[in-house]
Amino acid sequence: MSHRPAAPTSLAAVVAAVATAALAAPAAAADGPAFLDARELPRQTGTAWHAGPVTAGVPEPLPFCVGEALPGATSRHRAFWTDLDTNAVQVTVVERDEAAARSLAALFDAAVKSCADRVAQQDPDVKAEWRDFGRVEVEEGARVQGVRTAHAWAGNDVHLFAVGRDGRTVTVVHWGRMGTFQDAPVNAFKNTTRTAVNKLYRG
C-alpha cells in the first residue's frame, strides 16, 4: 500500500490534527451505510464528542495500526474528537461480495493483532502491548482488540479497535486517548461496536 502510518505520536497532537482535517473536509454523498453519531461513542467525562462529516477516502492522519490496510478508493470515514485528549474514527468499506468483505475484515483484524510487534520493531523507544477483548455478537460478527503504547518521551496511549461486518460491508472503529488499559472503556466500546455494525445496512 502507498500509505504508511508514522510512528506513534502524542494523542493530543493527533486530536488536533483530526479536528482540523474533519472541519476542512467536504461532506460525502449521503448514500451508503450509515455511520455512528457522536452520542454513540463511549461517554467522556468532562467533555462532549464532536463529529466531522462522512467523507470519501481514507482519514488523514491514517488510523493507527490499520492505516496501511485501508483501500483508499472505496473507503468512507467519519472523524470524532473531544476537547481533551480523546479521538476516534470510523471507516467503512463496501466490498464487491461477501467473500471479499470477509477477507478484508480478516486483514483488519490481523493488522491490529500484529500492531504492537510492528511498533516495537520500528521504534525501540516505544513499548507496545496487544490485548484481545473478544467478539461482539452482531450481524456477521465483530471483534474488539486493544493496543497500549508506552513512549519513553510522552507517556502512555491506549487504543481500542473494533472490526465488524454485515454482508459485504466492513467497518473499523478506532478509539484512542492518553492512558493505559485501565483507562479504556471496553464495555462501552463494545456497545459502540454493536451500534456501528447494526447501522451498516441502513444505507
Compose a concise summary of this entry:
The chain has one domain (11-202). Helix content is 25%, strand content 31%.
How would you portray this structure in words?
The protein has four helices and eight strands; from the N terminus they run αββββααββββα. By secondary structure, it is α+β, with helices and mostly antiparallel strands. It has one domain. Strands 1, 2, 3, 4, 5, 6, 7 and 8 form an eight-stranded antiparallel sheet that branches. Strand 3 and strand 4 form a beta hairpin.
What topology emerges from the helices and strands here?
Blueprint: H1 11-24, E1 50-51, E2 55-56, E3 75-81, E4 87-94, H2 98-113, H3 115-122, E5 126-136, E6 142-151, E7 155-166, E8 169-178, H4 186-198
Antiparallel strand pairs: 1-3, 2-3, 3-4, 4-8, 5-6, 6-7, 7-8
Index terms:
alpha+beta, eight-stranded antiparallel sheet, 203 residues, 25% helix, disordered N terminus
